[in-house]
Specification:
This protein has 7 helices and 9 strands; from the N terminus they run E-E-H-E-E-H-E-E-E-H-H-H-H-E-E-H. The protein is of the alpha+beta class and 246 residues long. It has 3 domains: 123 residues; 54 residues; 48 residues, no CATH class. The longest helix has 16 residues. 15% of the residues are buried. The structure holds zinc ion.
């Protein structure tokens, strides 16, 4: 449903409150904006000498001017292919940490007008509307480690937070990011071999002249214990590709 651009009265906003973290304060602004029918994005931020944020500027996602950095895209093709988001919308707010207090954050709306219609429809097309909180990212990590599919994870997030606009692709991307962090520049097999060493798992590895792994054997300590106790009959489960090392 669309309504004309309008100014909110302070009573409508949650911004009289103080917040104990920047994330909480930003989430409050994002939730308020979504309910009003617009999306915010970080426009600028400042850190103190110790590297901690103390001020963040937020704008409406339609704020700022569109800059054409691709000269081969004409104004006409751009309008057709990618609907521009930037229309110099003036709405802006700041999130400030109180001086001398680590955990008091305040929100101030510095300009409360928009130059476009507010609409609560299709907000999920804006990536910043689908931003996940650190709790949600933790949940993604836990659930993906337990083998939950992105679809199941999305369902859980939405059940916990009906306001969430997160889509399956965001979960894929978050899992990929976690995986890259875990690998830290290593290949999957290098990470696996490192984990074997750290966890004390017996293994032997054979590499060819190029250093590629051609054979790998590993056995968990529990399995070796069982092998020592019951070594008369060996059952070998050689199913292949039914699971993937993550
Ligand atoms: Zn706006």
């Amino acid at each position: 449903m669309e309504s004309s651009a309008q100014q909110s009265t302070p009573a409508d906003t949650p911004f009289d409150a103080t917040y104990s973290t920047l994330e909480e304060a930003e989430s409050a602004v994002q939730l308020y904006a979504r309910q009003q029918g617009f999306i915010t994005s970080r426009f600028r931020s400042k850190k103190d000498s110790q590297g901690f944020f103390f001020k963040v500027w937020l704008s409406c996602v339609h704020g700022g001017k569109y800059k054409n950095t691709r000269p081969y895209v004409t104004e006409e093709t751009r309008q057709r292919k990618t609907r521009t988001r930037k229309t110099s919308c003036p709405w802006s707010a700041t999130v400030n940490r109180d001086q001398g207090a680590d955990s008091i954050w305040r929100i101030r709306v510095t300009e409360d007008n928009h130059n476009h219609l507010l609409s609560s429809e299709n907000l999920s097309r804006f990536p910043s509307a689908r931003h996940m909180t650190s709790d949600e990212l933790e949940l993604v990590e836990d659930m993906s480690k337990s083998g939950a599919t992105p679809k199941v994870i999305v369902g859980t997030i939405r059940r916990r937070n009906p306001e969430s606009l997160v889509i399956t692709r965001d979960i894929y991307n978050a899992c990929q990011k976690l995986r890259n962090q875990q690998l830290n520049g290593r290949t999957s097999i290098e990470a696996l071999l490192d984990d074997f060493v750290v966890s004390g798992i017996k293994h032997t590895v054979e590499k060819n002249e190029e250093g590629h792994v051609v054979r790998l054997f590993f056995a968990f300590p529990g399995s070796l214990g069982l092998l020592n106790e019951f070594s008369n009959v060996l059952l070998l489960d050689s199913t292949y590709k039914t699971n993937r090392y993550v």
